[in-house]
UniProtKB/TrEMBL annotation:
Its cofactor is pyridoxal 5'-phosphate. It comes from Agromyces archimandritae. Its EC number is 2.6.1.19, 2.6.1.22. Keywords: Aminotransferase, Pyridoxal phosphate, Transferase. This is (S)-3-amino-2-methylpropionate transaminase. One of its GO terms (molecular function) is pyridoxal phosphate binding.
């Protein structure tokens, strides 16, 4: 039954770039090679690019490079353009805001858009209590502020993080990452009072959530002690670590321990938040109601914006002037974020993330039956990963296979599909598409992955 006159009928999106892959040159093509030579002369070697094709346009789920190649984008700028590249309502809201006010600095003369974003965050983050927000520019800055706020509130210094975590590249956050290389090597001295403790990695530790949490808590009590701990920072679903979904009960058990001991539980939902997981925040899927929630990446459709949102009494412990920064909560980024929240609601995007999970996992389970290098398939919503192992080790040592991931990513790129790697050992292929990625495009990408798997040497 169709009723096109019905006002609530979702409007099919109109794309300015054809939603299909098309490769017309070598990858990278000649114009990308030219730009790359210029870049090598002037851009720091400390900044790398996974695939040096230079992008000229992006729309929906597709990137177009300067040589006219079109790529299906399963990275979305690491989960940033969650609602689609150059999404119409985000472009319109940002363009309108550019005409009105670009900058005043909220800590000098405030504006409504900042307040509106804080209202939307209070409404959509987990937990049914009074919440407040501070807006900043990047994920790492949100982590830094979350830790500052927790320290001020508790009067304690200690910060605990989980193994396989990734929290950023600033001085404090590089001490909070699991991997030293490339994030911290040579950049010391690192910030002190950061303790690393085991988390839950069901594929490799085989522990129940409650047992994994007991191990985490025992380590915390032994190595730092609750009395000195300001906060425990967790990614409900770990991002760079490889999309580990903790075993059931892990996060609620940690939360109960934190509450009992006056430790602030901070959920770093910078990658897993903003509809990515099929819920607004992945915490909701895992029984977690954190004291503070960090948002960034997908919050403003591609513009830089990040937030710390949480219990009002914790957020208000900071003295006036202690939080903020020149660009934090920029009006254009805030206007875009309001459009993102509206698009999630109006276009039913939580359901789109759930659709992507169903289509991707069904296709990947079929591939697993045929290729024994596929060890684990995991994730939620439009945040799904495969962990690769060496042939013949799937049921035994589960020996990491980074080579398979590198070969598959390179083959897929040559066919017009952009995949990202992840994982402590580089042996995870992650799918972080925008919610504009159709089932047909997912099937197409899976067929490329199938060909790549058949070619693995
Ligand atoms: C990307 C990311 C960060 C850092 O965000 P930036 O905006 O790059 O500073 C922190 N935590 C998680 C979980 C991330 O995925």
């Amino acid at each position: 039954m169709t009723d096109s006159s019905h006002a609530a009928e979702p409007v099919a999106p109109v794309y300015s770039v054809p939603q299909e892959r098309k490769i017309v040159t070598a990858i990278p093509g000649p114009r990308s090679e030219e730009l790359h030579a210029r870049r090598l002369a002037v851009v720091s070697d400390g900044v790398s690019s996974a695939l040096p094709v230079y992008i000229e346009r992006a729309n929906g789920a597709v990137l177009v490079d300067v040589d006219g190649n079109r790529f299906l984008d399963f990275g979305a700028g690491i989960g940033v353009t969650t609602i689609g590249h150059t999404e119409t309502s985000v472009v319109a809201a940002a363009a309108a805001q550019l005409q009105d006010v670009i900058h005043t600095l909220f800590t000098i003369t405030p504006y409504e858009e900042y307040v509106r974003v804080a209202e939307l965050l209070a409404e959509h983050t987990p937990g049914d209590w009074a919440k407040k927000t501070v807006l900043v520019n990047s994920g790492a800055e949100a982590v830094e502020n979350g830790v500052k706020i927790a320290r001020k509130y508790t009067g304690r210094r200690g910060v605990a993080v989980l193994d396989h975590a990734y929290h950023g590249r600033t001085n404090l956050t590089m001490a909070m990452n699991y991997k030293a290389y490339p994030y911290a090597t040579g950049y010391g001295p690192l910030a002190g009072d950061v303790t690393h403790v085991p988390g839950s990695y069901p594929y490799r530790d085989g522990l129940s959530g409650v047992d994994a949490a007991a191990r985490t808590i025992a380590t915390l009590e032994k190595t730092v002690g609750a009395a000195d701990l300001a906060c425990l920072v967790v990614e409900p679903i770990q991002g760079e670590g490889g999309f580990m979904v903790p075993a059931e009960g892990f996060l609620p058990t940690l939360q109960a321990w934190c509450t009992e001991n006056g430790v602030v539980l901070i959920a770093d939902e910078i990658q897993s938040g903003m509809a990515r997981s099929g819920a607004y925040y992945a915490s909701e899927l895992l029984g977690l109601e954190p004291d503070l929630v960090l948002s960034a990446k997908g919050i403003a459709g591609g513009l830089p914006l990040a937030a710390v949102t949480g219990r009002a009494e914790i957020m208000d412990a900071s003295q006036p002037g202690g939080l903020g920064g020149t660009f934090g909560g920029n009006p254009v980024a805030c206007a875009a974020a309001v459009a993102v929240f509206e698009a999630i609601e109006q276009n039913g995007l939580l359901a789109e993330a759930q659709r992507i999970e169903r289509t991707l996992t069904a296709g990947l389970e079929q591939l697993r039956e045929r290729y024994d290098v596929i060890g684990d398939i995991r994730g939620r919503g439009a945040m799904i990963a495969i962990e690769f192992v060496q042939p013949g080790t799937r049921e035994t040592s589960k020996t990491a296979n980074a080579d398979a991931v590198a070969q598959l990513i390179s083959y897929a790129a040559s066919q017009g599909v952009l995949f990202l790697s992840a994982g402590t050992w580089g042996n995870v292929l992650r799918f972080l598409p925008s919610l504009a990625m159709s089932d047909a495009l997912i099937e197409d990408a899976l067929s490329v992955l199938d060909d790549g798997l058949a070619r693995l040497g």
